[in-house]
Specification:
single chain, 199 residues, alpha/beta, Dihydrofolate Reductase, subunit A, 8-stranded mixed beta sheet, 4 helices
């Protein structure tokens, strides 16, 4: 059975986007630095990226991530030629959708998006990789099995933090993997428990 994985590149100070996010710079000023590890000529980074892409059967993203990224992703989505299905959590279908695209728009919440994604992913993983808000919703709902972080050596100081609003519960993690490369430290944590704090 596939897992539900939150997958994000972050700075050590916790940012997945930087200030001044706009269509021309969907990650903000110099935010693309978060993804340079994927383009580095480092065999370990390439191997980890290939393994992750192979393991993923479907992707869940938020509408803001879709709107900012679709000009770069095109019809094939974030996985390019492998064309993994992307389920976009949104209140309404956008007016301009690429012909023959991999996108399905889901307007009735993250549980519906997850159900649809699991159906097409079958025994592969469902990757929640499109935006802090959607990732936080999945964490708050207790729907995440694994949190996978590519920790990139840069401090941004401002932007959007991945774990800004995950609720009052403590989410207990277990370290599953640590791979260090010059461009990023790849961290994988299993979610093992939740501890409710307060009333």
């Amino acid at each position: 059975m596939g897992r539900v994985i939150v997958v994000m590149s972050t700075s050590p100070d916790g940012f997945i986007t930087v200030s001044n996010v706009r269509p021309e710079e969907p990650l903000g000023d110099d935010g693309e630095r978060l993804h340079t590890w994927a383009m580095e000529p480092d065999d370990r980074n390439r191997q980890l990226l290939e393994e992750a892409t192979t393991a993923v059967g479907a992707i869940i993203a938020g509408r803001r991530t879709y709107d900012l990224s679709v000009p770069w992703w095109g019809a094939d989505g974030p996985t390019g030629a492998t064309r993994r299905p992307v389920f976009v959590v949104t209140h309404a279908t956008p007016p301009n959708v690429p012909d023959g695209g991999v996108y399905t728009f889901v307007s009735d919440g993250i549980e519906s998006a997850l159900r649809l994604a699991k159906a097409v992913a079958e025994d592969r993983d469902v990757a929640v990789m499109g935006g802090a808000n959607v990732a936080q919703q999945f964490i708050r709902a207790g729907l995440v099995d694994v949190i996978q972080i590519q920790l990139v050596p840069v401090l941004f100081g401002s932007g959007t933090r991945l774990f800004e609003s995950i609720g009052p519960d403590h989410v207990i993690l277990e370290t599953a993997q640590v791979v260090e490369t010059p461009a990023a430290t790849h961290l994988q944590f299993r979610v093992v428990d939740r501890l409710s704090i307060g009333a």
